Amino acid sequence: MHRNDLISCHDCGLLHRRHPLGRREKARCVRCGSVLYRGSPPNLDRIAAITLGAVIVFLIAQFFPIVQLDVNGYTTSATLLGAIRVLWQEQMQVVAVNVLLFTIVFPAIELGALLYVTLALRAGYRPPGFHRLLRAVRKARQWGMTEVLMIGILITIIKMTSLAQVIAQPGLFAFGALTLLLTVVVSFDPRALWIIGDRVDAPAAEATALPADSPMRCAALAGGAHPLACHACGLVAADKGAHGPGQRQHCARCGSTLHRRLPDSIGRTWALLLGAAILYIPANLLPVMHTRSLFGKEDDTIISGVVYFWNSGSPALAAIIFIASIVVPVAKLGALALLAYTSQRGSRWRPRQRTVLYRMVEFVGRWSMLDIFVITLTVALVRFSSLAVITAGPGALAFCAVVVLTMLASMQFDPRLIWDPVQKSGENHA
Q1: pLDDT per residue over 215-226, tens digit each?
Q2: How would you classify the pairing of strands 74-78 and 165-168?
Q3: How close are the terminal C-alpha atoms of the chain, in Å?
Q4: For the structural domain made of 42-191, what CATH number should be given?
Q5: 63 and 170 in contact (C-beta within 8 Å)?
Q6: 259-430 is a CATH 1.20.140 domain
Q7: Which of 28, 128, 302, 370 is a plausible cystine mate for 324, CB 3.0–4.6 Å?
Q8: pTM to 2 decimals?
């Protein structure tokens, strides 16, 4: 028995023994239903080829214009980097930095690190910085928002068709291809690469092996003990009890800090939720865009943007923006508040359903950035001097902060807290 044969559920903490699976099969937690791992073995050639293709398309998408507008002989075009630069010049540095991170930096980190590691493993060796690179892939994947940006680009194009002639540019097609390729790349589980790395590095693989009579093996499978699982690489380790002030236990494989539960999880979640709730008010009341044209000045809020698309005959786009920018942030605040409150009170109420709710919050969190991406591209495109100029408003800054704070709140909340009261009471929710 190896520690690689044990796997802990990310959402409820229940320990399982890993079994071989067939293609397209999934192993799910018997208690909360979360997906533990998939049966398709990682094909290094396939991962390297698709990742390399994504890198090439990513570079094309960054350096070529996305769309071009033509109004009575006046033309403007914008690249993603150019749009970010416009935001920076308009004193929206915080928003510009966030857009840069979510659409360029984090996807670049994920693709670059994954390609480097995969090519090295194909060559039969574990590259320098192997563990740090795979941890970077995992973290960058949480914040990369290329698919949200692509939807934002399409909404911006539809919005601009009523103002000018819209001409598609190479960057638009590159972002479309990049979105499809990244969908495949995200399906690659970095934990599988850690296992391959252990097999490639024979001494390291022997070091992680446990003898049949190891106390760790018995404790892990007995059910009475609570081994620690690394949330980065998935390795299960014996709990050495280093949980006091200044004491830390690190994963023997990747070096990540191990915790029984995330420190001050509920307190940090409440603090981030409070900040997001306070900023949600100005995010909806203050204008997100200022328009200056021959017909005068106009301020647009998030709600007015929804009304604009509804009245212009695009109810589907109005619904998308309303759901992403109004419904989702409120739902996230309410859902996380419910999860934090019930966990703080030690509630045993519907733990499986609350776990599903947490997974939904994690999934939809990034989609609230849709409005920010639309604003970024609109501000960069509508710059026709005396004809019309659109600039970002303070509401965009507040709304961007709401999205980031709610995402951080969901990351700080430890879903295993939902199941702790159930485990102590001995109830069976499998």
Answers
A1: 333 333 344 446
A2: unpaired
A3: 25
A4: 1.20.140
A5: no
A6: yes
A7: 370
A8: 0.90
